[in-house]
Every structure is written in structure tokens, then in C-alpha cells.
Design goal:
This protein is of the alpha/beta class and 178 residues long. The chain has a single domain, classed as Glutaredoxin (3-Layer(aba) Sandwich), CATH 3.40.30.10. The strands form 3 sheets. A 5-stranded mixed sheet has the order 6-5-4-8-9, with helices on one face. Strands 1-7 form a two-stranded antiparallel sheet. The longest helix is centred in the first third of the chain and has 19 residues.
């Protein structure tokens, strides 16, 4: 293979990996290194957030007590988010009656209408809200999306996932908590 063609192939590979691993947020100053040390947050209590859903309903962490909560930070422009969301739609359909709730927290960089259109186009069947500064800080700062937290029935963070993950990764952890 010619050097120029090899370079181009390697470049395309690394760009593809970057796109499908995670999308970086522009402001990294909110990152909490303690929260991001590992994928298991050692049963740290989840931040008791207060959000308004896209339908206008106020929700808090306490609304999910006794349920397993998958909390997903995402946005409409993010390729790995687009790849993961169908997994969440399936998981919600399968496990909601067994005690799983999913809350999508969109950054909404392209606006609320874009988020609502995305939800309709992707047939998202779980609750969504727009992120606010409090929830971003409360979960240690979100430096890349998707960032997803799995929270147990007692409000403790079971695991944090940064970047794209296969459905089976989430499913195995959800089953362990249900």
C-alpha cells in the first residue's frame, strides 16, 4: 500500500473511532476527577436533581425511588448518542414493567424543537428533559456524551458509562439490579 493511501486509511480509522466513542463537550472545567476515576462509582449517592420534562412536568431523583434508573446525557448532533438511543428504547420496552426507568437529559445545543423532533423521529418511549447547569455539576461535570449513569433502587450510582456501549453492556447491568 502506498504511504499516502496508508496514511488516509489510518486517518479515517481514528476519526471514525473518535466519532463513535464519545462526543466531547466544549466546557471541560466542570469535570470532577473523583467522579470519573472508574466506571463503578462505589455506591456514591446520585445527585438529587430537579428537572422539567419536555412535557412540562417537574421531576426529581426521588420520583424514581424503588426503581432502577438509567440516566443518559445526550444530544441530537452526537453520532454515538444516535447509535445508543435505539438500545434504550428496546431496554425500556423490555424492562419498564420490571422496574426500569430511563431519563434522557439532552443538552439541546440545537434547541428544544430539535430535541422534540429527534424524540419523535427515533420513537423514544421514555422521559426526556433538557439539561441544566445544576444537574451537569451535580453529576461531576459531563465532559463527553453520551455519558450514562445506572442508579440503583436506593439512589446510589451503580455504574457510569462514558461513550458508546452495546445494548448487552447496559442489559447485563440492569438485570443485576432488577
Amino acid at each position: 500500500m502506498k504511504p499516502a493511501k496508508l496514511f488516509l486509511t489510518i486517518l479515517v480509522f481514528f476519526v471514525s473511532m473518535a466519532l463513535f466513542t464519545s462526543c466531547n463537550q466544549e466546557n471541560k472545567s466542570t469535570e470532577n476527577p473523583e467522579m470519573n476515576k472508574s466506571t463503578n462509582a462505589n455506591a456514591q449517592s446520585a445527585y438529587n436533581f430537579e428537572l422539567v420534562t419536555l412535557e412540562g412536568q417537574k421531576i426529581t431523583l426521588d420520583d424514581f425511588k424503588g426503581k432502577v434508573l438509567l440516566l443518559d446525557f445526550w444530544d441530537t448532533w452526537c453520532p454515538p448518542c444516535k447509535a445508543e438511543i435505539p438500545h434504550f428504547v428496546d431496554l425500556y420496552t423490555i424492562y419498564n414493567e420490571k422496574g426500569l426507568e430511563i431519563l434522557g437529559v439532552a443538552f439541546g445545543r440545537e434547541g428544544k424543537d430539535a430535541v422534540n423532533n429527534f424524540i419523535r423521529d427515533y420513537n423514544i418511549n421514555y422521559i426526556n428533559a433538557l439539561a441544566n447547569q445544576n444537574i451537569v455539576y451535580g453529576f461531576g461535570g459531563i465532559s463527553g456524551i453520551p455519558t450514562t449513569f445506572l442508579i440503583d433502587k436506593n439512589g446510589k450510582i451503580y455504574k457510569k458509562y462514558v461513550g458508546y456501549n452495546d445494548k448487552s453492556v447496559f442489559e447485563n447491568d440492569i438485570k443485576a439490579l432488577l
